[in-house]
Amino acid sequence: xxxxxxxxxxxxxxxxxxxxxxxxxxxxxxxxxxxxxPQTLEVPLYVNDAFxxxxxxPARARLRGLVRNPAIPADLLLxxxxxxxxxxxxxxxxxxxxxxEQFEALVNHPDHKVxxxxxxxxxxxxxxxxxxxxxxERSVLWALAEGPTSLLASRWTVTAALPxxxxxxxxxxxxxxxxxxxxxxxxxxxxxxxxxPGESRTAPADEPPPDRRELEAQASDDNDWVRSTAAADxxxxxxxxxxxxxxxxxxxxxxxxxxxxxxEEQRAAIDYHVGRDDRIQPAVWATRTxxxxxxxxxxxxxxxxxxxxxxxxxxxxxxxxxxxxxxxDFAVRLLLCERHSGVTHETVLNTYLEAATATRGRxxxxxxxxxxGLAQLAESPDPWARALVVSDPEAAPxxxxxxxxxxxxxxxxxxxxxxxxxPSRVLDLFEDPETAGAAAANPHLPVPVxxxxxxxxxxxxxxxxxxxxxxxxGRWSGRRRPSAGGDGL
Length: 489
What we know:
Layout: E1 43-47, H1 49-55, H2 58-66, H3 74-93, H4 100-107, H5 112-119, H6 126-129, H7 138-146, H8 164-173, H9 178-181, H10 189-195, H11 212-219, H12 224-232, H13 238-244, H14 250-257, H15 264-268, H16 284-288, H17 292-300, H18 304-311, H19 318-325, H20 330-339, H21 345-354, H22 383-386, H23 397-403, H24 409-416, H25 423-431, H26 436-439, H27 447-457, E2 471-476
Antiparallel strand pairs: 1-2
Helix pairs in contact: 2-3, 2-27, 3-4, 5-7, 11-12, 12-14, 17-18, 18-20, 20-21
């Protein structure tokens, strides 16, 4: 789907917390419809007060931070996983780095769920992951073949999750795993090509196009999704196209308005609407065409849907990319950044700061994104821009220290795990409920303090929150919130 999700004040998402669509950068959650935000602003998820109290409990937050700490002793990591796996399993998969000692502490864990998490941990090295190829549990082998979540696979460069020999060993043990490997972006392309050479792959073929009578029947179907399918078919008769152009369904009219043969005047004559936050199906012909002239028509089109569609086209020229970088529509710029390595650093940075999509963190790995120089954002009025300063490897420790006192919690949290902070400041942030979780991930945290995190977590078993925690998907705003009776959904 083509579109975006708006962000409420103080709400954002980090790739290592995809499970929490309204997570702050610091790992804390805010209400999906912030009362300080504009009443018309919509967010994709609502969490009630009971859930906030549960998730943001400092003892629970410190557990999630500690499991990400690169300096945690291997024996303590094992104890943490054994005692609090439910609390830390998502964070465990996104540990930023693994020493061999830390990995070895868990690789033979008796609970196959832990081994399965290791098999799909994002930052485990290929050589470490390969230690699991002889695992007796089939679900672990399946996880190895699949690799980490494909949402995190960069569109520009993907490092193989396993050495080639390890993939070959998996196939020796279970040949059917090739069905998993062939669709995994983490499997080397040459191995996938060997598994499915040329067009010999036996995946289900596309359905044959409908004949004329079937197409006419679809165009008259009661279901507007079926009529939309007919409206996109290039073989639909002109009189049926004209009829669907005035269809009572906005969905059908929108599809008709993106037909390839229409002129700009004909498109404008159709009553369609594409809002800034609307998600739409792209016009397939615009996403695939290699004809520069057709691409130019889409790039220059007044139709937002066509510009969004062509932004997904991998065959655009440099001039087309440059033109779309200045597009008024946010979704056009986001789609362009997600699919093209030739966009400028400024476009990637600005798009990241404006985005509220669950995968926006991938933009920070864009080939054009320049981390050196982000320190200049320290004076930005945008707290999310200031939070990027820690990504600059040349940012001075004094600057990181100063930002750790920023009035905005998302900025303080961005610094809390940074090793450039002084050990004393790390302890201060560790004691602050708003930054406790992020500070628990700092390698300067003394080991006795780390062990104290597990001692304090013993109280979680007896802890209770007022009400039933609830997370509700939807499009919520200050004017439209879940009813009180929906808390248990």
